[in-house]
Amino acid sequence: MDKCTIIRLLESGRSQRSVAKELHMNRRTVAKYWEEYIETKEQITLDPTDPMKKEALTAKPTYNSANRSPRKYTEKMDKRIDELLAFDSEKTKKLGRHKQKLTTKSIHEILVAEGFDIAESTIRPYVRKKLQKQREAFVKQIYPLGYRIEFDFGEVKCLIKGEKYTYYLAVFSSPATGYRWGRLYTSSNQQVFVDAHIQFFKEVQGVYSTVVYDNMRNVIQKFVGKHEKELNEELLKLSLFYGFEPVVTNTYSGNEKGHVEKSVQVIRDRAFTKIYEFASMAHAQEYLTDALTKLNQKVSIETEKSQLKPLVSDYDYAITTNQKVDKYSFIHVKNNFYSIPDYLVGELVTAKLYLNELKVVRNGQIVASHARLSGRDNYQVEMRHYLYTLKRKPGAIEHSLVLAKLPRLRRCFLQFYKQRPKRFIQLIEEKQKLPIDELVTYLDEQAIKDHEVFTPKPATKAVNEARNQLREYNRLHQVSEVI
After folding, report:
1. Which DSSP category does 299 fall into?
2. pLDDT-wise least confident of 168-172, 256-260, 342-346
3. What is the strand order of the sheet 336-339 is part of?
């Protein structure tokens, strides 16, 4: 702005002295800008095609600081920094890859402790220059539709009914179209890893040719040598079933799956930066799904779907164990108890533990199915598993664990069937396939239809007379014992 003003005033016929006085500047500075301007205009007149001269005419003032020497950064200090960086390099050779490298701040603290008078901001460019390597160039990739999908996990923190929870966000991202998919989980273990693939392939109704991962534990079982990697067995099974090729990036090379790296941040920003309090995890997932729908509005995923490999069926992945049914007709799986039909007490059964469900198999048939429990020492029970035993021991039902774990059913029993446990068991056996809510409604209605709701009945005249005679008899009997 000063250069423009100087030139404008001088061109109007003002003297350099008056301009310098008005702008409160040195007369030599005014003369310098004017001489540069006149010289540049003359050069443009001689060679009108030179773009550099035209640019110089309107360029901002520049200052040549190349010959300036540092006032506080000394040769001794420079030598000491070299020694510290050499020490750090030797440490890296001994420790391998690590996160304990000397920073500019730590180098500055060492220098100050040794008596050097220097600011951290002063040594920073010198340290950076000593460490500077040639910047890496990246080659932009263009992938055909249906060829590549990238996977990664991210963390999301939410408040569920006021309590803080950390969830894991499984993300798939397509570099070809920009389509993004995400799902919340309570952990990032192998079951979650597999389930995320199952749910994603089900969502897009097809399979990509390659799936790209980083070196997470769910992908790499172990490193063999410096560069060779042994893939996780479950990942190999998953890739064989769906027919995709697993591709693993180099270590510390997040840029090799940069699309999903960015997608994790984008999804987290869009879905959970403004709203982070939810009534439940299901509510948070519903909100995430809505955010992804808006995010993918301009994405041509339908075009890419036509290029995917056909999806034959869902992958069946479960942790399978053999369990012996105890005398209470329970099996103990992952620190929790699940009821089994009572005719299998003492028998061996196969428990298949899925991400959210437990299925129990005997001789190729599913004999029990439960929602999976979290925590430990919890019970998941079904009344129909105990019908055979309860028919033989109807008196045991009132204080049984199975009734205590079904509060609505227990209320119905105590209100209408406490004196008729056999009738209660009979009705449950007839309608054992009904959901628990419908079963309770049926039992309530049946009790009313039977007209046998046990409420106190008014005493008749004969009953009252009999009660009075009994009281008199007891009184006389007590008197005779005293005499």
Report:
1. -
2. 256-260
3. 330-333, 336-339, 379-380
Tokens 């909100």, residue located: 287
48 vs 135, higher pLDDT: 48
In whole angstroms, what is the distance from residue 403 CA to residue 397 CA? Answer: 7
Q: Quick one: which H or E segment has residue 221?
A: strand 220-224
Residue carrying structure tokens 């008199």 = 472
Q: Distance (Å, rounded) from C-alpha 414 to C-alpha 444?
A: 11
Return all residues near 372 (Cβ < 8 A) that are at least 6 apart.
Answer: 353, 354, 355, 356, 357, 358
Least confident of 83-87, 140-144, 409-413: 140-144
d(CA 252, CA 136): 14
Do 448 and 467 form a contact (C-beta atoms < 8 A)? no
Tokens 């790499």 belong to residue? 220
Q: Confidence class of residue 481 from pLDDT cuts 50, 70 and 90?
A: very low
Q: How far is CA 146 from CA 173, 175, 295, 300, 468, in A?
A: 12, 10, 20, 12, 92
Q: Is residue 54 exposed (0-12), middle (13-18) or buried (19+ Cβ within 10 Å)?
A: middle
The beta strand positions in 297-442, using DSSP E, are 319-324, 330-333, 336-339, 348-353, 357-362, 365-371, 379-380
| CA 321 centroid distance within chain | 28
| The two structure tokens encoding residue 262 | 């960015």
3-state secondary structure of 436: helix
Contact 182, 171 (CB under 8 A): yes
Q: Looking at per-residue confidence, does 29 or 346 come out higher?
A: 346
* Long-range residue pairs from 316-319, CB within 8 A, at least 24 positions apart, any chain: 317/191, 317/194, 317/195, 317/198, 317/234, 317/238, 317/354, 318/352, 318/353, 318/354, 318/359, 319/191, 319/352, 319/353
Please state, in angstroms and rounded to a whole number, the distance separating the CA atoms of residues 475 and 479.
6
Percent of the chain's residues with pLDDT above 90: 35
CB-CB neighbours of 418 under 10 Å: 12
Predicted TM-score of the model (pTM): 0.62
The b-or-e profile of 165-189 (16+ CB within 10 A means b, else e) is eebbbbbbbbbbbbbbbbbbbeebe
Beta bridge partners of 321: 351
Alpha-helix residue ranges (DSSP H) falling in 331-393: 387-392
Q: Which of helix, strand or coil describes residue 218?
A: coil
More confident residue, 406 or 59: 406
Strand order in the sheet with 357-362: 319-324, 348-353, 357-362, 365-371
Report the run of H or E that residue 312 belongs to, with start and end.
none
Burial class (CB in 10 A: 0-12, 13-18, 19+), 46: exposed
Q: What residues pair up with 337 in beta bridges, in sequence order?
A: 332, 379
Which of residues 361 and 454 earns the better pLDDT score?
361
220-234 pLDDT tens trace: 988 876 667 888 899
159 forms beta bridges with 164, 277
